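Appendix B: complex inputs.
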Amino acid sequence: MLNGRMMDMPLLISSIIDYAADVRSSSEIVSQTVEGNIHRYTYADSHRRTSQLANALKKLGVNEGDRVATLAWNGYRHFELYYAVTGIGAVCHTINPRLFADQIIYVINHAKDRIIFIDQTFVPIVEKLVDRLPNDLIYVILCNKGDMPDTSLPKPLCFEELISSEASTISWPNLDERAASSLCYTSGTTGNPKGVLYSHRSILLHTFGMLTFAADVGLTPSSTVLPVVPLFHANAWGLPFAVPLVGAKLVFPGAALDGASLFSLMDRERVKAAWGVPTIWLGLLAEMRKQKRKPQDFSFMLSGGSAVPRSMIQELEKEFGVDVTHGWGMTECSPVGSTTTLGSQTKELSFDEKVELKTYQGRRMYTVDMRIVGEDGKLLPHDGKAFGELQVKGHAIIDGYHEDEEASVAAMTEDGWLKTGDVARITPEGFMMLVDRTKDLIKSGGEWISSIDLENAAQGHPSIMECAVISAYHPQWGERPLLIAVTENDVTLNLEDIHEYLNDKVAKWWLPDDVVFVEELPHTATGKISKMTLREQFKDYKFEHSES
Ligand code: ADP
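Resulting structure:
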């Protein structure tokens, strides 16, 4: 082999904040704080405080490879932790506060966290768990001295006090780019949460991958970007790294995620691009309808995490002029796998054709390879018709879980691809269309029904706020679809209304056999409808006509 004559420098996360502070120094980071006020500073300010924090961590005895946990909303201190912890070679473990108590205890112990940084709002959660957490865990509250809560946590430290006397410059260690940088547990619908352990290299390559479609989703130097997706969920889809790199203004929403709060924050701070899950957008959309306008400057929305209903894409694009991009990903993929950025060849498409393409999960991101595999283990063609398990491979995709051999073996194929647990089709143009989760597909008389497609069609009904489709036992067909829905205030619907609405939208044999109306649907820690809870709730359900 002839080696290239290029400098061999590791790809390190610290290079991003160094670059932002140098080249994008005056771009702002604005945070809606849990205390209620708005905090504002620049990337240069952030670099200074990140250095102070890194110096403080070293004084607390944090070494390379040590795990440092966070339990916090999206805000500037959490952002500083992302860079300070990883910069000194430690591992930033972002904990999802929506996990159950037992799961939080599990992840802290499994990760062997040494320190935990906690937003004031989450202090009561941790107080209840202390007895089952490591004795030497250090607790730091993310606040000023004056805001320190009266807490039963052992020897709580105050974040601002901790960093105030530290030097505001640092020379980052020259780490191995393969060193672990960040740890995020998947919510795990069954069994214990599983740890996804990212490296500096994987994070940087994922960030570079994102830059290939950045301009199409509003990630440009002059933009203002709002990550509604939490910093505690899958690296906030890579935004804490990609946004500083392009130099856009970053706006953090704190704990105020309802439609009205998001609308006013976006309006005030002139947010151009916002990223989050469809459930959040339902709230924002309701506020936009109420005010009969969008937040000024709002132009790009990236929605992912679960399928985006066609009706939502149509309304946002047609009524409000917001360009919607649909994304698919997994915590295990860092997390972006694909997006529906359309590219120039789609200029000729009609509005309806464009919307149709945006209901797909999109084309693979650079660094991600995709294939679909049948039940017999054979590779399936990318013809837009055949569907099978989606498997992925790439620079920022796990090759196993952190210290969990059993889960690692179950997740990977023998030839090193990740089994996503999703069922998909891929068109000849490379558009991936998710048919369902493997476990959510409904097998009716030997034929498959996609619960996602059925949900998306039903979601378009003007009186349905949110809905889910699960399979229920049927003596003749094995399984049949059951629709569970939440309607707009005071509206009563019945099965016939639903059938009438769906008649020209899905095949006749797909029509749900029954509909149940509920006040509220259960959601998982990552904001998705929890089908597992619904399956449990409706496990004894019997279709009326199938009882005889
Ligand atoms: P968690 O597993 O913690 O709920 P993840 O974000 O890792 O969170 O979930 C990944 C899964 O979410 C995917 O495997 C897929 O089933 C689902 N998902 C993600 N994006 C989409 C999308 N655009 N459409 C449909 N499902 C999606």
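The chain has a mean pLDDT of 95.
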